[in-house]
């Protein structure tokens, strides 16, 4: 059974439905949070692929979160080796930065159930190229990616690039992994953020309102997306 190392971050939740997607491809996910443990559960050579999840941090905050520097070094070496990787939100930004791209402030925050469109290369992509060419995705980010040289743009929203492929690495800005439990945890964190409480209440209500019409389909999408990625590991 192929082993996939999932790198998690404080505030970023867990692998969610990706566990099911990996299992359907005969693979297993093992989670590791570098902020809490300096070493992964097993040596890196034991893993066939990396999954890098989201979090409250951003790539520019390495002074505050020095473990991000270690992750970037790990990812740079991993990408150089040509081994498969998949990044979500912060994880996609870390992959982009490790590969020579840039992480920039998005023109506006994307939070909630928002539209994403596959680009022509995305429709032909072996991992993302299934289902509808446009879909409603769950998003929660204020930063965006300017992809590395040689990367292929796969999906976009009106605000920013939403997915790219760099060799054997994929990055998505949206959150295909989320379950209802993950979203409820994030909503609880939202209430603790600074700023206008009415805005926070509005955002929380919009997230919950979108769960009924979207979450079941979104979980099916996330499961199949990661199954397709994990199936490439043989």
Class by alpha and beta content: alpha/beta
Which architecture would the CATH scheme give at its second level?
3-Layer(aba) Sandwich
CATH topology: Rossmann fold
CATH class: Alpha Beta
Mean pLDDT: 96
One letter per element, helices H and strands E, the order comes to: EHEEHEHEHEEEEHH
Polypeptide structure, described:
- The chain has 234 residues and is of the alpha/beta class.
- The chain has one domain: Class I glutamine amidotransferase (GATase) domain (Rossmann fold), CATH 3.40.50.
- It has helices at 18-24, 67-81, 90-98, 120-123, 180-191, 197-231; strands at 2-7, 27-32, 49-52, 85-88, 102-118, 134-146, 152-156, 161-166, 169-172.
- A nine-stranded mixed β-sheet has the order 2-1-3-4-9-8-7-5-6, sandwiched between helices.
- α1 (18-24) packs parallel to α6 (197-231) and α2 (67-81) crosses α3.
- The longest helix has 35 residues, at 197-231.
Q: What structural keywords apply?
A:
Rossmann fold; 28% strand; nine-stranded mixed β-sheet; alpha/beta; 234 residues; 6 helices; globular
Short characterization:
The protein is an alpha/beta fold and 234 residues long. It has a single domain (2-231), classed as 3-Layer(aba) Sandwich (Rossmann fold). The chain is built from six helices and nine strands; from the N terminus they run E-H-E-E-H-E-H-E-H-E-E-E-E-H-H.
